[in-house]
Amino acid sequence: MKRHDKHNSRVMGAVARVRESRSAMLGLTIIVLLVLMAIFAPHLSPNDPTDVRLGDRLISPFTESKYPLGTDHLGRCVLSRLLYGARISLAVGITVVGISTVIGVTLGVVSGYYGGISDSVIMRFVDATLSLPSIFLAVVIAGMLGRGLASVMIALVAIEWTSYARVTRGSVLSLKEKEFVESARSLGARDSYIMARHILPNIIAPVIVVATIGMAYVILAAAALSFLGFGAQPPTPEWGAMLNAGRVYMRTAPYLTILPGFAIMLLVIAFNLLGDGLRDILDPRRVVVE
Amino acid sequence: MIDYILKRILQLIPALLLVSVVSFSIIYFAPGDPAETLCTGPDGSANPKSVEEFRIKMGLDKPLHTQYLIWLNNVLHGDFGYSYQSENPVFDHIKKAFGATFKLSVVSLIISLAISIPLGIISAIKQNSPVDVACMVGASLGVSMPNFWLGLLLMLLFGVYLHWLPVAGYGDGGDLEHILLPAITLGTGSAAITARLMRSSMLEALGQDYIQTARAKGVSERIVIGKHALKNALIPVVTMVGLNFGYLLNGSIVVETIFGWPGIGRLTVDSINMRDYMMVQGCILFVAVLFVAINLLVDISYRYIDPRIHYEAA
User: Fold this and answer.
1) What is the value of pTM for the model shown?
2) Which of A51, B154, B203, B277 falls 20 to 30 Å from B141 in CA-CA distance?
3) CATH class of A17-282
4) What is the chain B residue with the closest CA to A222?
């Protein structure tokens, strides 16, 4: 019971400090707003995001109340597509970061706790991946697996998990030497108990920091891959793909280039702001983030 | 020092093995049989007999690990195979494309440093002033801005509206007019990172005792900043230059595609789209080796420039 209270107060302290950090709060506010927009996209969208109306092609924003942000080259409502696009970017980000966290933390704990050969093999693999050009690797993997969001997510997980493994391993190594782990071990606690009760709760903070900044990276990279044509395929309202389709009409309809790019930047900057803020708050020793 | 370099080179082996396995397996991602894929030219599929001949000639009938060793041996001898699109050696294409990428990277780097170093210094000297805040907000924007979006916005402003610069293309062997927009696009992201580093490095240098001493003995502020602080603050930034090259190389894949710049990034994307597997293999292998080599040089130079840095056994 006592430990529980202590843990709670630490969490509350972190929450209070997030409130004090202006940039972290700004990031968090933007994220909450965009998440709400994504959840309520069906209610907020004035039109169906994939509804093609060739009679309403390339209507400029703020000219017709039916299409507040205008229409694209197929007469689809830009506002509706942007709202649904938030769902895709957030879903891709959460999926990739979630799977990467599970893989990375598991392998990182194994690597750091047991050491030995498994540690050498895992860490050589992590170092090897981190020393390669990530975007090139992702483009080639996604391109070879075939177009589509699933390929993009596999390619990004293949790269992303390594950061979590490295951070987790580092934290586990320092925790292993702590007195409370030593004493648990001398009291005869099993490895699985020590890992679940003593190691995992203490690596949550650095992993949250890596995951938040990882969201920014994954959302940006997924949009880039879709922009290059390897990710979401038409008619999916994905922001990167919208940007790619819209750039052909740059001269006549520049808003098709400006709006989706702005949406991507807004979401990415929000996660970066929150991540930077959390890093300063949660980890005074600073986590090394690749 | 020699020991250190040798150790770092040995540490590169897993990375090189990993990338060689990834690029080797690319051919097996292709739908159907690799021999058929490689024999299929622009005129359509080859006849079964020549496919079989090719299979034996290339050793594709042998077990997988033997195939890998044969392939690795060829690659180590500079034989990356032939592009089925152009039927020229893959390595010739890569050499040519790398020239364009190198040119773009150098100009981007110059732009990046020309923006980031002065801004970082000013931010540090005028810490917490409106100038500092503006620079750091700009840096945050620069880090988070998708480079493909920035590229298109610059294209829109300077190409479409103002007509100052060509919208895209390589021009006459990559002249200054054509290189500016892609180079600014590519340089902005690394400028944002470098400016942050320059600022924090300068702040750290300004907080040192020797700065206090210099000020106390009446050295003018200009010399304190320009000579004493800057010299030391530049060390980490100079070593960042190498890392920047890696960053630029990574960014080139998007920027070159947007601006139609015939470099290695665009070659990779085009080859994937054309299903030119040998070319994709060659590209990823070349870029990865280059990337790894740059990282190695950065590490060595870091140790060379700043002898205080001591590497523990990894």
Assistant:
1) 0.86
2) B203
3) mainly alpha
4) B146
